[in-house]
Amino acid sequence: MEAVRSSRDVVYESIRSRVLTLDLAPGAPLSENELAAELGVSRTPIREGLILLAREGLVHVFPKVGSFVARVEIERVRDAQFLRESVELGSLRDVPRAPDPAVVAELRANLDDQRAVLNDLEAFFRLDEEFHRGLMRLAGHDRVWPTVVSAKGHLDRARRLGLREATAAPFHAQHAAILDAVVAGHADQAVDLLRGHLRAVLADIEAVRASHPELFATGDPGVPVRRTVAVWG
User: Fold this and answer.
1) Band of the pLDDT at 186, cuts 50, 70, 90?
2) Span 1-6, mean pLDDT?
3) 83: CB partners within 8 A, 6+ apart
């Protein structure tokens, strides 16, 4: 039983990563046979992993039709944004007047690394995540971060879509300004800067939705027709 559970978890994490990084695009059909062959497992852990992803709203499973990557749902993006903003802004209020110099040094190094990968979406995204978790570490709340991550799948896809359409340079500059305000002890300014930074994705996603509406959900997905790409009726 434990081996099956472990296989399911590996499958879940692998497919989830491919969905979030857009390697599996919104609307793409998912073949249990192909995924099983790629991951070297039977169809059972594939099916179990897809069920877990369906609970997160990242996959739609249609009996006798198949499974498909869910298109980005704006309401889920907004809900995740609300959660993330509430947690991160609240955490920033708890940063002590004299922040841990070791964590500050790590964040400064992270900013240097960000500057070096502005044109590498996934590398920048990884450093962005580390930076935000580092801010929470300054307040002693970084253990909450995994909970935030687990709830923001649709938001992360939206963020990646936005980064595909624009340069990451403004986000790096915003990170630097937020950290400077925190270190200077300007809590209110830091909170305002972080709020604006986190909400920028909402404007970006509207621009992406205007140019690529096929990537976004429009309501009840209905039952798709399995073709080369998913087509919802």
Assistant:
1) very high
2) 51
3) 148, 151, 152
Q: What are phi and psi of 60, to 5 degrees?
A: -110, 130
User: How far is residue 215's CA from residue 17's CA, in Å, rounded to a whole number?
Assistant: 18
pLDDT band at residue 221 using 50, 70 and 90 as cut-offs:
low
pLDDT of 223 reads 56
The alpha carbon of 197 is separated from its chain's Cα centroid by a whole number of angstroms, namely: 15
Q: Over 90: is that where the pLDDT of 156 sits? A: yes
What does the block give as tokens for 94? 């708890």
Closest CA to 130 of 165, 175, 174, 75: 175
Q: What pairs with residue 232 in β-bridges?
A: 224
Say how far apart CA 209 and CA 58 lie, in whole Å.
18
Question: Would you state the torsion angle of the CA atoms of residues 222, 228, 17, 223, taken in this order, to the nearest 10 degrees?
Answer: 10
Give one DSSP letter per residue of 57-95, joined into a string. TSEEEETTTEEEEPPBPHHHHHHHHHHHHHHHHHHHTT-
pTM of the model: 0.86
Residues in the chain: 233
Contact partners, residue 85, CB within 8 Å, separation at least 6: 195, 198, 199
Q: One-letter amino acid identity for 149?
A: V
